[in-house]
UniProtKB/TrEMBL annotation:
Keywords assigned: DNA-binding, Transcription, Transcription regulation
SUPFAM superfamilies: Periplasmic binding protein-like II, Winged helix' DNA-binding domain
Domain HTH lysR-type: 6-63
Phylogenetic classification of the source organism: Bacteria, Pseudomonadati, Pseudomonadota, Alphaproteobacteria, Hyphomicrobiales
Pfam family membership, one: LysR_substrate
Family: Belongs to the LysR transcriptional regulatory family.
Protein name as it appears in the record: LysR family transcriptional regulator
One GO process term, biological-process aspect: DNA-templated transcription
GO MF annotations in UniProt: DNA-binding transcription factor activity; sequence-specific DNA binding
InterPro entries the UniProt entry points to: LysR-type_TF_proteobact-type, LysR_HTH_N, LysR_subst-bd, WH-like_DNA-bd_sf, WH_DNA-bd_sf
């Protein structure tokens, strides 16, 4: 039910006078004249039918009623301001800055992030790609996706994906496209310098001579090595999770599907003490869910 109140401008003036203990300071704060403040106070006094100040020689002493009225007005302004802030927060999306390794970003995250945006329209995801050697802790972020290295204690981390590595090759590099390869004879090996040790580990699992690594053509980044493999330049150790679409389309084939080795874990890292922690946790939970769904789809 609506109740009659004194003019709000007059209540604002009254609250300011009592807070500053000065008519002059209240006039300066509200950008009005000294006389305007006096008129506002008189308006409230007429409204409630009581004097609000005991006039003394050098100051105006607020009555108990004036103090209570000013306190109530101050609480009202605070409540209104909080409500306005909340309304603005509902209208303005939360911006979530995500840093992610370049290849994983391009081949796994970006093709799927539309799903997160559709499910959480109030969270706007901005993805910044990083490269091996970048000092990711010095980059402003709300969520960092990492697959190697220590994590400072203040961060929360969730493992959402475990890589499985296989040796893949383009049908172009095979003398008879579509045919299975009996051995590795005649296939050139490729390797990415940003993923050290993976080719050696796979060759060991396959029982192949480790010396083949020395003749493998090296590329500075995995995404460059992947393009070389797609062009038919040779065979490359790849994380199956990030190239699944290339296998399904036949752009790459897996000649030795029984020989696979575990790769690194991917973790979502965020600081639980920041203002974006809730959105970061939501994004982390989404990563876990979408990775699980992708694994189930592959298994079926």
């Amino acid at each position: 039910m609506r109740r009659n109140l004194p003019p709000l401008k007059s209540l604002v003036a009254l609250e300011s006078v009592i807070r500053h203990k000065s008519v002059t300071k209240a006039a300066d704060e509200l950008f009005v004249t000294h006389g305007a403040i006096s008129k506002h106070i008189a308006s409230v006094e007429d409204w409630i039918g009581l004097p609000l100040f005991a006039k003394k020689r050098r100051s105006m002493q607020p009555t108990e009623a004036a103090l209570k009225l000013a306190e109530a007005a101050n609480k009202a302004w605070t409540l209104i301001a909080d409500s306005v802030d909340a309304a603005r927060a509902e209208e303005e999306p939360t911006v979530l800055n995500v840093v992610c390794p370049a290849t994983f970003s391009m081949r796994w995250l970006i093709p799927r992030v539309w799903d997160f945006s559709a499910k959480h329209p109030r969270i706007s995801v901005l993805i910044r790609q990083t490269h091996t050697g970048d000092k990711w802790l010095e980059t402003p972020f709300d969520v960092a996706i990492r697959s190697a290295g220590p994590i400072p204690a203040r961060y929360a981390s969730n493992c959402f994906l475990r890589e499985e590595l296989a040796l893949l090759v383009s049908p172009r590099a095979v003398s008879k496209p579509g045919a299975m390869i009996a051995d590795m004879h005649g296939i050139k090996l490729l390797r990415a310098m940003t993923r050290p040790g993976e080719l050696e580990a796979w060759l060991k699992a396959a029982g192949a001579p480790g010396g083949a690594v020395a003749s493998a053509q090296a590329f500075p980044h995995f995404y460059i090595a992947l393009e070389a493999a797609l062009a038919g330049a040779g065979a490359l150790i790849c994380p199956l999770e990030t190239v699944r679409d290339l296998l399904e389309r036949g752009d790459l084939i897996e000649p030795w599907p029984r020989i696979r080795i575990p790769g690194p874990d991917h973790e979502a890292i965020y600081d639980p003490g920041t203002a974006q922690a809730r959105a970061a946790e939501t994004f982390s939970d989404w990563l876990i869910g979408v990775a699980r769904e992708a694994a189930r789809a592959t298994a079926s």
